[in-house]
């Protein structure tokens, strides 16, 4: 190729965003060889059609991809390259989470500050409660606290709460031992989820507060540390206290309601409540509704929900029957067990015109 159609290394570096030294390194690594090398002076020249490869190479290194993986991506087809990228990002996120967890543990012991014993709970009960309540948590940009679980310990009970602003789930637990301290904090939900398996296999779990986190102490298993989230948790007590009067109450089989929700297509589901039953329908008029026998009191009502809001609230309810306390089609609905009140979920309906 004539030199007039080639770029010297300095110009190619500016075009690609790579430094000249980086280009020499990648040439020696076999990732990006020059189009030509002057046999006498050793000057390196690159062609215009190498700019795209060099740019992608730079971008892959910017996300800390190892050289071997970079070469695999550059030489792969679009689908395989996409899979390799997803695999790398997943690994980076796992490593970052592990580093964050280790840093939190280190911070918890800096200064040799003793932990503050809070309470003790039965492991299987705590594990179930964490999984149930965290269905109402969510990862929202700019609001990391919504991915957390609020723990409030008093001398009578331990209350777990999570909310994503469209749902609120709260469960009250009776401690295995009287709480030693009144304490409240918002714990990282992802780290609690990761600890659930260990918690479930432990007869008793003792909660101990330390700076920036809590320890889940067990007698016969590995202790787990979870970070505290510093952001202020939403005022869920005000939300619960401001609920309006219940105008319609429905008691229905949990299994039948879940099956009806699963059978309906679409993202939005309506409950038509009338005497002696509830009809579950979707926004798709081509599919018939599913009538369910139910005990109903109060006003007839049609209320719409996002399936992703209603289904987790019903599926985590305790017991064979679920009770829905409805306050109209634009007010939060309360969903809980028909015979136990220690787990309660609030779910926001959507507009009846099917728009979110």
Shape: flat
Estimate percent helicity: 25-40%
Structural class: alpha+beta
**What's the CATH architecture of the largest domain?**
Roll
Number of helices: 10
Total strand segments: 19
Q: What's the pLDDT, averaged over the residues? A: 89
Number of domains: 3
- Beta content: 25-35%
Oligomer: single chain
CATH class of the largest domain: Alpha Beta
Poorly predicted parts: none
CA-CA gap between termini: 60 Å
Strand order of the largest sheet: 8-5-6-7-19-18-17-12-15-14-13-16
And the CATH topology of the largest domain?
Answer: DNA Polymerase III, Chain A, domain 2
CATH homologous superfamily grouping of the largest domain: DNA Polymerase III, subunit A, domain 2
Elements, N to C (H/E): EHHEEHHHEHEEEEHEEEHEHEEEEHEEE
Description:
With 356 residues, the chain is an alpha+beta fold. Helix content is 33%, strand content 30%. The protein folds into 3 domains: 3-75, Orthogonal Bundle (Multidrug-efflux Transporter Regulator, Chain: A, Domain 2); 114-234, DNA Polymerase III, Chain A, domain 2 (Roll); 243-347, DNA Polymerase III, subunit A, domain 2 (DNA Polymerase III, Chain A, domain 2). A hairpin with a 7-residue loop joins strand 14 (277-282) and strand 15 (290-298). The longest helix has 32 residues, at 78-109.
């Amino acid at each position: 190729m004539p030199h007039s159609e080639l770029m010297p290394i300095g110009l190619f570096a500016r075009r690609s965003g790579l430094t000249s030294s980086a280009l020499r390194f990648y040439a020696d690594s076999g990732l990006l060889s020059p189009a030509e090398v002057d046999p006498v002076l050793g000057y390196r020249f690159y062609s215009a059609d190498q700019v795209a490869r060099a740019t992608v190479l730079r971008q892959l290194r910017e996300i800390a991809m190892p050289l071997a993986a970079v070469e695999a991506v550059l030489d792969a087809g679009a689908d395989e390259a996409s899979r390799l990228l997803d695999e790398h990002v997943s690994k980076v996120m796992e490593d970052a989470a592990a580093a964050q967890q280790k840093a939190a543990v280190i911070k918890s012991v800096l200064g040799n500050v003793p932990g503050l014993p809070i309470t003790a709970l039965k492991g299987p009960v705590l594990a179930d409660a964490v999984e149930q309540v965290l269905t109402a948590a969510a990862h929202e940009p700019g609001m990391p606290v919504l991915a957390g679980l609020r723990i409030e310990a008093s001398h009578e009970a331990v209350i777990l709460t999570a909310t994503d602003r469209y749902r609120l789930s709260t469960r009250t637990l009776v401690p295995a031992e009287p709480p030693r301290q009144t304490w409240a904090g918002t714990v990282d939900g992802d780290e609690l989820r990761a600890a659930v398996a260990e918690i479930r296999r432990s007869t008793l779990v003792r909660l101990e507060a330390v700076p920036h986190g809590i320890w889940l102490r067990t007698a016969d298993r590995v202790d787990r540390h979870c970070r505290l989230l510093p952001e202020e948790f939403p005022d869920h007590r005000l939300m619960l206290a401001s609920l309006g009067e219940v105008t319609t109450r429905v008691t229905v089989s949990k299994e039948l309601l879940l099956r009806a929700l699963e059978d309906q297509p679409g993202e939005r589901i309506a409950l038509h409540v009338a005497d002696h039953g509830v009809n579950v329908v979707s926004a798709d008029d081509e599919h018939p509704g599913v009538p369910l026998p139910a005990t109903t009191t109060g006003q007839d009502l049609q209320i719409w929900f996002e399936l992703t809001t209603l289904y987790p609230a019903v599926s985590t309810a305790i017991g064979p029957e679920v009770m829905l306390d409805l306050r109209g089609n634009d007010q939060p609905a309360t969903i809980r067990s028909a015979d136990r009140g220690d787990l309660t979920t609030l779910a926001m309906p959507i507009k009846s015109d099917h728009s979110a």
